[in-house]
Write a structure and sequence with these properties.
HIV Type 1 Reverse Transcriptase, Chain A, domain 1, alpha+beta, two-stranded antiparallel ribbon, about 130 residues, single chain, extended, DNA/RNA_pol_sf
Length: about 130
């Protein structure tokens, strides 16, 4: 079990164990969404949050042909980080091929763990990040 008390300590799963997931999509033209203006009152906090995430290795430079809009939501005073960054993924949702398989039967799923060791993973620090 590992604990992170700040965003700089927050890690991520190794690609050796959890390779990148490719989202199945229909044929489409890459989108270039217009940026959503960031209010001047939180602009410095947004820049600092982006730089902190770059330094921690959570964000990296890209040369992608896609550009999704990003907007920031101010958090309560004293929160670290002071803003939450949200990426508008509606264009990706529009071209994603939906998986129409049935959800597993909960009882069968739970019974499949009988006589097996179990580990839990909780991310109580960052929520949706």
């Amino acid at each position: 079990m590992a604990f992170a008390w700040s965003y700089s300590e927050k890690g991520y799963f190794s690609r050796d164990y959890y390779p990148d997931y490719e989202i199945p999509v229909i044929e489409h033209i890459p989108w270039q969404s217009r940026p959503i203006p960031i209010p001047k009152a939180i602009e410095a906090d947004v820049i600092a949050t982006i730089r902190d995430n770059e330094a921690a290795g959570h964000f990296e430079p890209t040369t992608s042909s896609y550009r999704s809009s990003l907007f920031a939501v101010a958090k309560k005073t004293g929160s670290v980080p002071p803003v939450r960054l949200v990426i508008d993924m509606q264009p990706l949702n529009a071209v994603t091929i939906r998986d129409s398989s049935l959800v597993p039967n909960l009882n069968e799923f739970a019974e499949s763990f009988l006589s097996h060791s179990m580990y839990g993973l909780f991310n109580l620090y960052s929520g949706f990040d």
